[in-house]
Structure formats: C-alpha cells, structure tokens
Specification:
Chain lengths: ~500, ~150
C-alpha cells in the first residue's frame, strides 16, 4: 500500500501537476465567488481541458477546484447576500446578517476554517470507507448492480428539493436520453433518426456543458442586472476567535461533518442538500434556535462544515460502484470512462494509484484552502465585481470550445445548445437538473445489468430477489419508493391525532 | 414566460406517447422476449403516469386558468436570450470557414457589444480571449482548433 502512496505522491509532486492544482484552485475560488455560477458548471467547463491530460492531474484538478468553489461560494453570501453556489444558500441569510452587524470577518473566518475541517473530515471518511466497500462490492453481479443503480436513481428523486413528480420527470428525461444510440441486446439503433453521430448515443460532456454552462449563461443574461453594494472586509482579522468557536461547537462540528459525508455518499444528493439538512438538524438541537436566520454563527458552522464534507463523500459511491454521489461526480465518472478507466471495485486493484491520488488531493486541496482562501477573501470585492456582461460571453465561448474539442464535432455543439435551452426551461419550471444527470449516467447501467441478468437466467425474475445482497438492495429500493407514501400517512396520522386531542 | 403544471403534465404525456410510438418497429429478442423496446416503453409509460398525476393535481387545484403565465416582459432579456442562441449557431456555421480565432473574435465582440460593453473594450477583450484560448488548446493541450480557409 505504501508503494502506491509513494507512487501517487511522486506523480502529484511533479511541477506540472502542482501547476495544474494551483491553477484549478484559483479557477474554483473565482467561479465559486461569482453569484450564479456553480461548482458543477465549473466542472463541466474544466472537463474538456482535463480530457487532454493524464488521468491523475485531471482528477486532481477537479478535486481541488470543487473544494475551493464550495468554500468561496460563502464569500458573496456574506458580502452581498447572494450565495456564490447553491451549497451556501442555506446559511446566506445568517452570513449577511452577521456582516450587517459588522462581523463580516467572523463570518468569513468561520466559513473558511470550518470548510477546511469539513473537507478534511470528508476526506478521512472517503479514505476509510472506499476500500472497505470496494472489497464488499467485489461480490456484486449484474443483479446487485441493477438494484444499486435503481436505488441511486430513486434516491436522487427523493432528495431533490421541490415537487417529487418534477424530480421524476427530470430523472425520466435523463434515462430517455440515455437510450439514444445502439442498444445493448441486439445492436439496434434507437431514436437515431438515421443520424450517424447519434449511434454512440448523446455525448455526455457536451450535454453537461449545455445543461450547466449554457443554461447558466442564459439565466444570467435574461435576469435583471443587479448592482449590489459589497461590504468591505479586513482579511487579516478573520482568524480571531476561531479556536474558541471550534471548542464551543465541537459537537456541531462532528455531527455535521458526519451527516454531510453520509449525504454526500447518497447518490444524487450533494453539498447543497447536505447544507440544508444540517441547518435543520442544527436548529433542532440548538440551545438558541430563535437566533437562526438572524445572524447567528451556528448555522455557518454546521452547514459550512457539512457542504465541504459532502464533496469527498460523493466520491465514495463514484469510485466504488461507478454510481455518482452528486452532479460533480456524475461528470467525473464520464471523465473516467473517457480516460479508459472503468470506475468500480476493480479500479482499487488495477489502478490503485488513481484512488490514492484522489485521497491525497483531497487532503492537499483542503490544506491549500487555508492560504488560498485567505487570498480569496482579501480580493473578494474585486472578484464579485467582475462585470457580468463581459463574463457571460467569455463563459459561452469556453463552452463552445469545450463542447467542440472533445470530438471535433459541430454536432456536439448543437447538442450543447439544445441541452442548454432544456436546462434553462427546467430551472424556470422548478424541475431539478441533478436527477437528469444521474439518469443519463446510470440509465445504461440499469438497462444493461437488467437485460444481461434476464438473458443469462432466461427471464427468471426470481434471481433478482433470491440472492442475499440483491434482496437487501431490493428492500431498500422499495423503501425509497414508498418513502413519500409512508411519510404522507405519518403526517396525516399526526394531524388527526392532534385534532383529536 | 412560464407554462403551468397542468400543461407541463400534458406535455409529459405527449412525450411518453411519442417515445412508445417510436418503438413500434423495434425488433424482439429470440423467443419473443422484449429487447430494445422494453426500457423505452417503460420510460414512456412512466412519463404518461407522472404527467397524468401532475396535470390532475394541478387542474384540481387551479382549474384550467392561467395555463401560460406571461410574467414581466423584459425586452433586453429576450433579445439577450436570442443572441446567445444566435452566437452558438454562428459558431457552428462559421468556425470551419473562418477558423477559430476569427470566429471567436467576431462572436465575442458582437455579444459583448450587445450586452452593453463599449466597442473598444469588447474588441480588446475579444482579441485577448480568442488568442489565449487558441494558445491554450493549440500549444498547451496540443488540440488544434479549426484553422479555416485563411489559415488563421
């Protein structure tokens, strides 16, 4: 094992890789700090560049970038009351109220320090959980993978915010897109309408750039231009009082780090949902719940820790099963496939240095966040003030080049535009985008494992339920499906009992 | 502009029907078992089911009023939206003729001008961006972008 660690370390210590890590840190900090641009968009735009790198620096770039972006999303939340990424939305109100009371340095200090601790907790969980699960996953066959993917898809709908039916639409749309192209059983071209470019299916990366890049450009250029005042901060004062807060809120820290990681591991739920859930949990257990939303420090500690710990958590199912924990790792799985690497338990045996590199980069990225985050806070007002009318055309150009460069195909640019318009439509109608991404990635896994299982057992359905692990996964999936129904009954029951009393 | 949930549901039903109808000529597996058509048909069926539920819920709650909510008409937003689409289409049409640098320069200048940046500023930023993207992909990542007939 130590051999692989030294191997991974020696690759990461290469000046080229260090240069890539530094650049992607600044890129992540910048995109995260711009309100309206998400870490997922940053990943989608980074992929065309990482596509032409070796797998190790490519993954290191993505890990560093996402860690930095989720932290720096907190900066505009505190300074202008607009979250930089959706992951900071849960505690934006509290951050801004703190700034209004003249405690901007305290808010940003907590954001930075607890992001680092949360990130490191997630990284440790990833390092411990991934190899254990990978050993277990070696026992999995097509039946188990079918249930696992189904479970992941269902979870992505359940945890999405807003209407469950709209979440289901999003998922079905992603699954439907995944059926385009040559089918697995007979090699029959489905929904290609005679187009040769569609035989291999809809290209994933241009679709992602459309859904996250172009749609965000469309949303930004159609929104009203806001001129917001930006509070000033004295960056040198952010460290004051952090040690005391860490000691006072150590229970919150551990609780939110653990919950954040677990939510990260759940397929489809990422940093943003981790922040919302830990905010709610913190309020429930707080001694001062009435202060929440009015400029209290506790939500920043809880949700700020959780969103960063969720990031590493999301890599657990992605590396072990090839099932993404959030939208960013969904794109990562696409990257791994393009690099000729198949995520799954075998990657821990065949290319262990890749796995160790992800572990090590998570730790390096979170440590680098201390100095780089400090710089980001120091220059925050310059970053937030970057004019939107210059930035959006530039992002569009990067999207165009990225979508084109993957396959040198103009058809892919068209795919990007169509997906951009669809993504914009979905956002406008409160349809969450994450389930569609999961559907697109997991659709082929669900279908392939189902069809292969059916053909090899000559349509004997009982196999899906009679194998022990398969049966457990099946029960879990059923629980997830009936979760809304059960919750509905419980709530009705509660209301009735209240009325009766 | 926003369409109501009842229309959204009807749209989903129509999409489900479309998917299923497109699978009518898909071949079956040996022994008559469903093959390529199975998965799309299940998806189509679920689209119809969930679309039905959403429409039903929405009509029950709001009736058939407000099928399309017009929202505030905000003219620059609409033209900005169109110009982003036009920029992508222009890129697809022009990039192989004019080459990347020239196409990117033109699109960026016009788009920034449209968004209200001054002409001088737009031109300078467009030149800097198109050249640096070309340098990044061509020299650093070794992925040549289209040259075009002019050779640049």
């Amino acid at each position: 094992m130590s051999g692989y660690i030294t191997h991974a370390l020696s690759i990461l210590a290469d000046p080229y890789v260090l240069f890539v890590i530094t650049l992607s840190s600044f890129y992540g900090l910048f995109i995260g700090a711009i309100p309206g641009l998400t870490a997922t968009m940053a990943t989608a735009l980074l992929v065309p560049i990482t596509f032409f790198m070796d797998p190790l620096p490519a993954l290191a770039a993505i890990v560093t970038m996402e860690a930095m972006a989720i932290f720096s999303g907190d900066i505009p939340a505190a300074l202008v009351r607009i979250p930089g990424t959706p992951s900071s939305a849960a505690y934006t109100q509290d951050s801004y109220e703190l700034t209004k009371k003249g405690h901007a340095e305290l808010a940003l200090g907590v954001d930075l320090v607890f992001s680092v601790i949360g990130g490191l907790m997630g990284a440790v969980a990833l390092i411990i959980a991934a190899p254990l699960l990978a050993e277990f996953a070696m026992k999995f066959t097509t039946f188990e993978y079918f249930w696992l993917a189904t479970l992941g898809l269902s979870a992505s709908v359940i945890v999405s915010r807003g209407s469950l039916i709209k979440g289901a639409f999003s998922l079905l749309f992603g699954l439907a897109l995944s059926t385009v192209g040559v089918d697995i059983t007979l090699g029959f071209p489905r929904f290609t309408f005679g187009n040769v470019e569609l035989l291999n299916g809809i290209n994933f990366i241009p679709a992602m750039i459309g859904l996250f890049g172009v749609s965000e450009v469309l949303r930004n250029v159609t929104g009203k231009q806001l001129a917001y005042p930006i509070a000033r901060v004295k960056a040198s004062k952010i460290w004051t009082g952090m040690w005391t807060l860490m000691k006072r809120y150590k229970v919150n820290l551990v609780r939110s780090g653990v919950i954040g990681t677990i939510i990260g591991i759940l397929p489809g739920a990422g940093a943003d949902i981790a922040a919302w859930i830990t905010y709610a949990v913190a309020k429930k257990f707080s001694k001062e719940p009435e202060k929440f939303g009015k400029g209290h420090i506790e939500p920043l500690i809880d949700a700020g820790t959780a969103n960063n710990s969720a990031l590493a958590g999301a890599w657990v199912p992605a590396l072990v099963f090839g099932i993404p924990g959030d939208s960013i790792t969904a794109i990562v799985i696409g990257v791994l496939f393009m690099q000729g690497l198949r995520p799954g338990p075998m990657i821990f045996e065949t290319r262990p240095e890749i796995v160790y590199a992800v572990y090590i980069t998570f730790i390096i990225a979170n440590l680098l966040m201390i100095p780089f985050g400090y710089l980001a806070i120091k220059f925050s007002s310059n970053m937030i003030r970057v004019p939107r009318n210059i930035l959006m055309p530039l992002i569009l150009m990067c999207s165009l080049v990225g979508a084109f460069a993957i396959n040198n195909s103009l058809f892919d640019v068209g795919v990007m535009l169509v997906m951009g318009i669809i993504g914009f439509f979905m956002e406008k109608h409160d349809i969450p985008v994450a389930p569609a991404v999961l559907g697109l990635v997991l659709g082929p896994i669900v279908e392939e494992n189902f069809m292969v299982s059916m053909i090899k057992t000559e349509w004997d359905f009982t196999q899906f339920f009679s194998r022990p692990i398969s049966a457990v996964l099946c029960v879990l999936a059923l629980l997830v499906w009936f979760f809304p129904v059960i919750m509905g009954f419980l709530q009705k029951g509660l209301q009735n009992s209240k009325k009766a009393s | 502009m926003k369409i109501s949930d009842s229309l959204l549901g009807l749209g989903a039903i129509a999409f489900g029907v479309l998917i299923i109808s497109l699978t009518h000529n898909f071949p079956s597996l040996e022994g008559g078992y469903p093959g390529p058509a199975l998965f799309p048909r299940i998806l189509g069926g679920l689209f119809i089911l969930f679309g039905g539920i959403l429409s039903f819920q929405s009509i029950k709650k709001h009736g058939l009023a407000n099928l399309v909510q017009k929202g505030e008409t905000y003219w620059p937003a609409f033209t900005n939206y169109l110009s982003v689409g036009a920029a992508v289409i222009a890129y697809m049409v022009l990039v192989e003729v004019l080459g990347f640098v020239l196409t990117a320069f033109l699109i960026l200048t016009l788009l920034m001008k449209k968004m209200g940046v001054s002409l001088l500023k737009s031109t300078l930023i467009a030149i800097a961006t198109s050249l640096s993207i070309n340098l990044l992909f061509g020299k650093f990542l070794l992925v040549p972008l289209p040259w075009g007939i002019l050779g640049w």
